Amino acid sequence: MTIFDPSSALARGIAYSFPQKWLRLNVPASKMGGGIEGEPSGFSDWLLRSHGLPSSEYAPRFLYGNYLTELLGDLTNSGNCETKPVEVTAIRKVGDSGYRISGDGVSFDADIVVLCTGHLPPNKFLPDHPRIIGDVWAPNALDEIDPDDKLLVVGTGATAVDVVLTLHRSLHRGLITMISPHGNLPIVDAAEAEYPDFFRLHDGDLRPLTVLRRLRSEIARAEKSGDAWQNVLDSFRHHVRGIWQRWSPRERKQFLRHGAQTWLVHRHRLPSDVAELMQSFVASKKLEIRRARYRSLKEVQGGFEVQLAERAVPKQIIVNRIINTTGPSLAFNSAKTPLYRQLFSENMASQNPMGMGLQVDDASQLVDGHGHAQSGLYVLGSATRGHFWEVTGAPDIRLSASLIADHIGKVRFNGEFDHTTRGVAERVTKIVSQQLDVSSTTVTKNTSFIVDLGANSLDLVELVMALEEEFHCEIPEEAAETILTVGDAIQCIHAQTFNQNVEA
């Protein structure tokens, strides 16, 4: 495998690149999972081992970037993966089943290509102006703001909260006004607790209204029993992709009109201390949050006169600067990046009919301008939002990657590539529990076979041999020595079975 990325911060992207400790994950570490699908405690185990932080911690985001960087380093050191600091500017078909990847004056041939390009730059609806910050993640984007500036932040989501927290840290004194059509900050999270899976995709009517009623009914039932609605929503979340794909275009549009923003507010939540801090800013008159839409602006001395529509009533405010936090563009057909300009100009890509990213098929293969899915050319992440909806959270990305890997196995290895990550995790857990005579629950919760489960060297030898028999692979001695946790075993099995399938 070869990763092409000109960035020096591989595995971080935008989300996990910034070193500020106050930019935190919006879920506890226990919900972030591991580096692969089916490894529930990978990050939380690493966080405890490396930093002494519990699984309930809403960790700084850069720590998750450190974790992913470490996983990628392990993969590249194993020889299963290489990285090239190349910006890919073109992908073209070669023959019947291959692709030529070009960039920075060099070309490479590949049988399979996965586009993992992340977010496009933010939606551009504001004019270019020195006092308008169109991309808050650009280097030094907030540095020119005077502490006494009156600010308009367009958006009230997680990025807007990050901006306000960063301004607070820089001792900002001027009034900050946040606006959005609903006027709601993300809702505070609750203590994590298991909630039974109550929803069935095949239980008849899946119209948006029916799904909403079923969800609200379950929340009411849960709250009567003392359960938090947040845990009900978390239990429901893994059905969302399947529901979205079963909806007709008309039903999807109805959800986008009336339900999407409410879902996002409840789905992407805030740690309780961050929510309390934001409310303290409101109480002290440092921050106001308005249910309003941006309409237009006029430049005035030292800033702008901004026209808003507050519940359809025209309003105006005077501010010194405007900050756009409305999120990334999904208009890939008008993206300025060379790669997407080439793909669209040569009819190798098409925009999703909902206007939300690229058009892909159910296997996440890119659909060309003629409506044909291109075998072996996959898309992962936010570019697939229109087809799958839930695609940007860490669990969603892992699931998408797992399904793509599974499809590659079935298509390229005639179904013999039978080691989807979910299957590996379950089978490894079962083998460990049998070999070390402990329950599956204990295996999942504990980290070290030696420290936590009391395994000796012969136990580990027996365990490795059992893994080889189960997965029909040969684990080299050096690799076997690294298997000290369930996560180690899962990664080792993936590496060995993948290599041996490719060689075969």
What does this structure look like?
By secondary structure, this protein is an alpha/beta fold. The protein folds into 4 domains: 2-121 and 330-413, FAD/NAD(P)-binding domain, CATH 3.50.50; 124-187 and 270-326, FAD/NAD(P)-binding domain; 208-253, no CATH class; 419-503, Non-ribosomal Peptide Synthetase Peptidyl Carrier Protein, Chain A (Orthogonal Bundle), CATH 1.10.1200.10. The chain has helices at 42-51, 61-77, 158-169, 208-224, 229-237, 240-246, 249-258, 260-267, 272-283, 338-345, 385-388, 394-412, 421-436, 440-445, 457-471, 477-480, 486-503; strands spanning 2-4, 82-84, 90-94, 98-103, 106-110, 113-115, 132-133, 151-154, 176-180, 287-291, 293-300, 303-310, 313-319, 321-324, 365-367, 373-379. The strands form 5 sheets. It has a 5-stranded parallel β-sheet with strand order 7-14-8-9-10. A hairpin with a 2-residue loop joins strand 11 (293-300) and strand 12 (303-310). Helix 13 runs antiparallel to helix 15 (457-471) and helix 13 (421-436) packs across helix 17 (486-503). The longest helix is centred in the last third of the chain and has 19 residues, at 394-412. The chain starts with a strand and ends with a helix.
